[in-house]
Amino acid sequence: MMELPSTITARDGVAMDTNARGRFGDLVFGMIARLAGWFILLVMAGIVIVLVSGGWRAFSAFGPGFITSTAWNPISNHFGAATSIFGTLVTTLIALVFAVPFAFGVAFWLVEMAPPALARFIETAVQLLAAVPSIIFGMWGFFIVVPFMAHYIEPVVTHYLGHVPGIGLLFRGAPYGTGLLSGGLILAIMITPFICSVMTDVFVSIPAVLKESAFGLGATRWEVMRQVVLPWSRQAVMGGIMLGTGRALGETMAVTFVIGNSNRMGWSLFAPGNTIASLIALEFPESSAGSLKLSALLALGAILMIISFITLACSRIFLQRGTSN
Amino acid sequence: MMSAPQSQSTDAGGWQRGGAQAVRRRLVERFVSLLCNMATVVVLFLLFSILWTLITRGAGGLSLPTFLHSTAAPGTGGGLANAIIGSCEQTGLAALIGTPIGMMAGIYLSEFSQDGRIVSLVRFVSDMLLSVPSILVGLFIYLIIVEPAGHFSGMAGTLALAVLFIPIVVRTTEDMLRLVPRAMREAAYALGAPGWRVILNVCLRSARGGIMTGILLALARISGETAPLLFTSLGNLNWSTNLNAPMASLPVTIYQYAGSAYDDWVQMAWTGALLITVAVLATNILARWWLTRNGSAQQ
User: Fold this and answer.
1) How far apart are alpha carbons B30 and A278 in whole angstroms?
2) Among residues A279, B30, B35, B69, which is most buried (max CB within 10 A)?
């Protein structure tokens, strides 16, 4: 009888002890987790601050004209962003024009037409295409696509379309093979798997009842896709496209190999150009620390970041709305 | 879902009857199917074209000296040893730095929702970090590490890769922890386990397979990155494992060699490209296979 209270207090003591240790552990663990979370905020803030402050000299030296100027002259120290912004937007647009229909086609095929055994295999293959490092796309583009464009595609297109009034302007010029069109095509190949995988996920997640009732009314697969699946999943599909756009905007190595790297702005898609990322990759190693050129490159980096942030924000809004349906 | 088209073909619905409109609808359907088939064939063809090009052009350089010798001047029979070891060192270290930070941040996002707005802010920013163009990460590390230190270094390259690595791990960890059933956490809490033990010993443990897969995929992704290394670890023609000095890496070496005018350097670039692609794709296939196997074992 005498021992009972003591054992109870002992047990109480143990329980209190583990409780205290547990609370202490929770405190430490919570601190570590929060620190890790805040570290991410810190890195992002660091990137923004460093790029903007590094580019500030260029922004203040050229003012708003920095964005509209096509100059890029390290000797007279005149720099402008217009050509590379133009190149970035044009290559991304070309990439989307080609990637979206292909991604849609593959996703439609995977979801509705593929034999199940084959679908899994092909889906993996498409995902592997997304995993190939960008420098490989660059090399392949440089050694395979560029000669192919120069010998077969560009002369033929110029021959048939070069004299058409209006759009003919886009297809004139010497067939170098390198240029905005080649850059855009390589980007298209790189972002197709991304867009395709979002589309496949969305198309699969539509409630079966919706599709089955349309099929029950006698609709064809294409009619179901166009009138039921696409309207239902429009926002998520847009989100996926924006995700691909973001990747195309910032892609560096693949574009650097095939775009021709020239600071010219014109109508022809066959003409060499540059993008923000390719310009940074090429010019940065040749600019000395503290120079105005370096600052101009950082300013370009800041502009690229703003463009890709806007794209990403759009994609998130679309994807959230699309999946909350 | 797959069976729906077949099932409707048996009950001779509208589009199988005669009449101009039905014929038109059938033609459109055929045409769209054809286009979709063609799109799939084209995309697969491109993948195989890339692989075929790499194999036919890169296999010629696969010999023992390639793995044993460092890069050397054109015509003197160099290899890729320093680039391979440099890549392994920088990628491996980046993963070592990035995994704990990324996992803790992922835990923060999935388990500390009581922090409210700041959790969603961290999630949003982490997603942004995931899609920041990698060349900007290179610029960032250059400005905060390389410029103050006055020289390029393998450590800078490692940190640039870690910045790319972390958000991928954050995303995977959060997603996988969300899949852990609520009942499992509650059972652990009911046994009197403190919160941190529940998270580490129960949640993380059951999400282990998925998180490992994510880490493998992240590893594959950063091992092929070139742009962030250009201004950070720069590349090195000699054998060097010193983190405080410029360090070679396979992607940067490929970039430097592929644009050169020397045949043997271009050959080495193709061999390097083949090596890195095989490594990246093999890791991907392994990770996916592992995930499907674990996934089906759990069901």
Assistant:
1) 42
2) A279
